[in-house]
Write a structure and sequence with these properties.
The complex is a heterodimer of chains A (123) and B (107). Chain A has strands at residues 3-7, 11-12, 18-25, 32-39, 45-51, 58-60, 68-73, 78-83, 92-102, 110-113, 117-121. By secondary structure, chain A is mostly beta strands. In chain A, strand 5 and strand 6 (58-60) form a beta hairpin. Chain B is an all-beta fold. In chain B, strands 2, 4, 5, 6, 9, 10 and 11 form a seven-stranded mixed sheet that branches. In chain B, strand 4 (33-38) and strand 5 form a beta hairpin. The chains are: A mainly beta (123), B mainly beta (107).
């Protein structure tokens, strides 16, 4: 069974940093691109970042570019999101999501999601 | 960026009704279109990908159609468990974008 478990969310002050993790199991992790998608309280879904299966290519939304770094450790089946210079508008539930496309080189749709980890940015 | 616009934003319907939700892309996205269902307090669930391909385990009352910029999600006969929020998403180009969501409520 495919499973994604996020962790690392917390209450942080504006300007602070946080590192989110997503532990994956039940599939060949390195064969799939992975993404982070966030959802602010009561709002819709916003794609944040993606990384190919090998980790060679990364992609970011303009809203986080320069402040966020996505990475992965395929030996530990874990996805990361390093978030710096956090702002109030980054407050959201952060989901990690597995790509539907096998092979690892494409980012298309998300066929498995974790339960999310909550990031709150407030003083 | 490709903007995805869903309509309506909310809809009320009864069990057994046929419901259609529309998603319009600001530019052509070929067939790179997916639909998700999200229930309160839960993660989104992939229903349909590639415009019309049903994800494994999704009931056949869900169907998708369209091409280019205009797409639809149809639920042929609403069941109680279908009342949720639905999102479209384009996978044609970065940044990946979602529609604003359509809330399907019980009449």
């Amino acid at each position: 069974e495919v499973q994604l478990v996020e962790s690392g969310g917390d209450l942080v002050q504006p300007g602070g940093s946080l590192r989110l993790s997503c532990a994956a199991s039940g599939f060949t992790f390195s064969s799939y691109a992975m993404s982070w998608v966030r959802q602010a309280p009561g709002k819709g879904l916003e794609w944040v970042s993606a990384i190919t299966g090998s980790g060679a290519s990364t992609y970011y939304a303009d809203s986080v570019k320069g402040r966020v770094t996505i990475s992965r450790d395929n030996s530990k089946n874990t996805l990361f999101l390093q978030m710096n210079s956090l702002r109030a508008e980054d407050t959201a539930l952060y989901y990690c999501a597995k790509d539907h496309c096998s092979g690892g080189g494409c980012v298309t749709y998300f066929d498995c999601w974790g339960q999310g980890t909550l990031v709150t940015v407030s003083s | 960026d490709i903007q995805m616009t869903q309509s309506p934003s909310s809809v009320s319907a009864s069990v057994g009704d046929r419901v259609t939700i529309t998603c319009r892309a600001s530019q052509g996205i070929s067939s790179w279109l997916a639909w998700y269902q999200q229930k309160p307090g839960k993660a989104p669930k992939l229903l349909i990908y590639g415009v019309s391909s049903l994800q494994s385990g999704v009931p056949s009352r869900f169907s998708g159609s369209g091409s280019g910029t205009d797409f639809t999600l149809t639920i042929s006969s609403l069941q109680p468990e279908d009342f949720a929020t639905y999102y479209c998403q384009q996978g044609n180009s970065f940044p990946i974008t979602f529609g604003q969501g359509t809330r399907l409520e019980i009449k």
